[in-house]
Structure formats: structure tokens, C-alpha cells
Amino acid sequence: MKIVSPVTVTFLMLVFLESFKLSFCGRNHNVTCIQSERQALLRFKQHLKDPSNRLSSWTKNGDCCRWDGIICSNVSGHLIELHLGSSRGTRKLGGKLNPALLDLNHLTYLDLSDNDFRQTEIPTWFWNMSSNLSYFNISRNQFQGNIPDLLTMTQPSVLIDLSCNNFTGSLPLLSSNVTAIDFSFNSLSGSMSHFLCHKLNEPMKLEILNLGHNLLSGKIPECWKKWSRLVGIKLCDNNFSGKIPGSMGALTLLQSLQVRNNSVVGEIPSSLRHCGELVTVDFGYNQLSGDIPGWIGERLPKLIILSLHSNKFTGTLPEELCALSYLQILDLAHNNLVSEIPSCINNLSAMNSGNNSDDKIFYRTSKGSFFEDILVVMKGRVVNYDTTLKLVKTMDLSDNNLSGEIPEEVTSLAGLQSLNFSHSHLVGRIPYNIGAMTSLECFDLSANNLSGEIPLTISDLSFLSHLNLSYNKFTGKIPTGTQLQSLNADSFYGTKLFGPPLSESSTDVRFGTGGVLKNREDQHQVDWFFLTVELGFLSGFFGTVFLLMLCKSGRLVHFQYVDETGHSLGRIIRKYIVK
């Protein structure tokens, strides 16, 4: 498994409408518990560990339809939903799964999520019982073993969430009635061909497919046409290879496509231009190559998140991307793009304004909605955003071969919180009106060839907490502003700037821990002046020692000379270094 990298999506949180019917305390006032179902629940309880006494209402003579976590049918009185998922502030259930659940013949909703069953292997009878469920959630436990084929799901629309467990083995075959699956954060392995290409002529109802954070490998197969109802696909953090299948272009309802952190190669298939509903595209941390297609800006107008981080893209930064008026996260860092930053960048209107009332990015399906989440590099740290993702606005074009000046139009992006143009070949000055970007918290221009003085308006960036202007050709005094003087001095190393947090003197020479690096090529260059001095010193020192070993009479004179001149020589060296 590869390391989790910046801007990776962790998992799609499934938040379905059914879950809002009941928090944990369900009450059914118009029906009475059926005796056989009450006895089954009591037997099930006997094998559970309940350290916080959550099931205290489950008593021998009680009405089970009024017990915590139980919902009965208002028509038949049968128990139809069992809500035993843990929530914040409640201690987790544990113990063993009792086959008494088999006596709940009308159960269609089972939630055992976020409990602690201590690496339990799920028994066969439990999987057989699940065939009657329309909602099956045992996520965030420690269940282990293989997942059997799930071909006998009898309900017309089924949600299955097995995420965050220790399941191993290959992917199971699915019933055509399954609407959403989340198998993420397990140790499932092997190819997905048998899973995806089974019964090619049988249309599937699946709308959400989350296989992220497993050990799956091989090529992503060309069998996507039968899955035409898909709204969200997540294949992140596996070991997939080969190309992105062109048949994905048949998924015209697709809103989220994430293949991050695999070993996918080739170009972005042109067939994806038919997926006009896409809101999120994350192909970061692969080996994709070729040009970034201009049609992304023309044919995918609803994009909010576009991440192509750490690939092998070449060519120019397409101006067509400026047409993406809903774009809030643009990450093209760590590629080989060679161009200037287009002046039309101010057309990214979602980055121009402040945050709206919606703080979530979510997609609606026939079973409800699911929320997007993503990892973003912010202030030098990788941060996970989910329920507040809609509030995040970032642009990262760092570590490319961009040239030219920073366009003045960038200062109109007043909603941006993070802007990173570092490690390229940009020249010229920082735009004078940089202070208009009032939402900026992180600003990185390090390792370019920028020059001139820092504009005084930068002091207007009251939210700025991470600034890096190091290793450029900036001159003059650092503008006075509370947030600038509170930053680390290494934010200004490798420049000719002075003033707090640096020394007041403009003649001080400041070196970072790795020396001055003006751009990426300098990391591999040798400073021959210092190397010559060091070699000369070593040659002279060891030559003198060798001669002294041969001539005893010279030793006393030499060391006396060193003792007399050492202090003055030290003063000279210290004075030179200070300058």
C-alpha cells in the first residue's frame, strides 16, 4: 500500500435518509411487541458486552417496540429496524453475534457500526441473514475474514457499508439490487475484473462504489457500461495499474471520480468529456502523462475539485480551465507544466467570493446523499476536510516549470485561503494589490526568481499565518504588520530582505538549514568556492602535521605560533561571518 499523500480522499461518508428516522432512541407508540421477537432480542443481548448499560431498557417484561434502538412496523407490529451503532459520547458494544437474530424474520435495517467486536470473524449465518436487509452497516468494527458473494439480496434497493474493518480476500460478486457499497479501509486484494465484469448484459443499480484504501491491484477493467447509474466512484489508495478505462465515459450520471494514489499511466481519456455532471475529479499521485486536456474546462462545467497532483503532465496550463466558474480546489502541483499563469485566472469566480451557506459537498442518490471528503495541503500540513469541504478554496501550481510574471488578476481571487506558486521560474514582482486577497491564510512563492520589494498591502492580510518568500531576489524592508513580524524568520531566508523577524540590517547573510536554493536545479549544484577552501585547509593541515611528525624541534615553535595567533584569527573569522 502506498503512503497517504496530500489531497487524498479518505472515504465517502454515506449519510442516507433512512438514518434520520431514528437517532438512537426509537419509540413506537401505536404497536405492541411480538413475543417471539422480544425473546430473540433478549437472547441476542445476553452475548453482548454493554459497558455503558445502553440496553438497560431491554427488560424481560418490557415492550420491545419501545426499547432503545428498536423500530417496529406500525402496521404489523414486527420489528423491522435495529439501530445499535455507537455515537459520540457512548461506549461501544462488544461480545459475540448471537444467531437469535435469525428469528427477526422481518428485519430490513441493521446498524452495528462503530462498535468493538474484537476481531470477530463473521459467521455464515450472519451473512445469510443479511440477504433480507435493505440497510446493512457493520462499519468501523474489527470484523475480519472474507466477504462472501452477495448475490441473494432480496430487497429492491440495498445499501451495504463494511468499511473500516479487517476483511481480506477478493471482492465479492453483487446482486443487481445493491445500490451503494462502501468496502473502503480493509485489506481486500486481487483484481476487480471478476467483480466488475460479472454478467456483462445484466444492468446494475449501483450508484455508489467505494473501494478506497485496500490492496487491490491489476488493471482497471473496461466493463463500466453496465454500471450506468453510478454517481460516485472511489478507487483511491490501491495498487491499480494500466490506463483509466475509456468505457468510464459511458457513466453520464457520474459526479465523483477518484483514482488517487495508484500507478495508473497514460493520458486522461477523451471519453470523460461525456461525464458532464462531474463535480470531483481526483487523479493525483499516479503516473499520468501528456497534456492536461482543454476540454476539462469546456465540457465539465460543474467541477468544484480538480486534482492532478504529482503526475507527469507536460505542456501548457490550458486557458480553458478559466471557464470553471464553480472550481474551488485546483491542484496541479508536482508536474512538468511549461507555461505562464494565464491572466484569465480571475474568471474562476467561485474563488472570487467568500463562503456560501453550504459547507458540504454532497451527491444525491435514490437512497439518500453522501458527503465528499478530501485531503488538502494547507499551511504545510495535510488536512482532512469533509463536512466543511465546501468552505475550502485553494490553488496549488507549485513545483512545475512555470515562467513569466504573476498576473495582477490573481489578486481578484479574494476567497482563496491558500495560494502556492513555489518552486518554478516566475519572475517580476508580487502584484501590488496582493492585500485584496483578504481570505489568504497560506501564501507560498518560495524558490522562484521574483524580485523587488514586498508590497505594503501585504500587511492587510489579517488571516495570513503561513508565508514563504524564501530563495528569491526580494530586496528592501519587510513591511510592518502584526502577522508578518510574528512569522518565522526562515520565511525570508535566501533573499536580501531585512527588518523583523530578520535583523534590522540589510547586510546580514542568512542561510536556511539546507543553504540557498534559488530553484530546483540548484539542489544538485556544488559550491566550488567553499569546496576549494575546505580542500585547501585539509591539505595544509595534514601536510603540516606530517612535517611535524618528522621534525620534533619544529613542534614547539609551531604550537606556540598557533597559540599566539589563534585568538586574533578567530576574531577575523567571526567578523567575516557576521558580515
Automatic annotation (TrEMBL):
Transmembrane residue ranges: 528-551
Coiled coil feature spans: none
Lineage: superkingdom: Eukaryota
Membrane topology: Single-pass type I membrane protein
Keywords recorded for this protein, A-Z: Cell membrane, Glycoprotein, Leucine-rich repeat, Membrane, Receptor, Repeat, Signal, Transmembrane, Transmembrane helix
Endoplasmic reticulum keyword on record: no
Occurrences of domain Leucine-rich repeat-containing N-terminal plant-type (ranges): 35-73
The protein's name: Leucine-rich repeat-containing N-terminal plant-type domain-containing protein
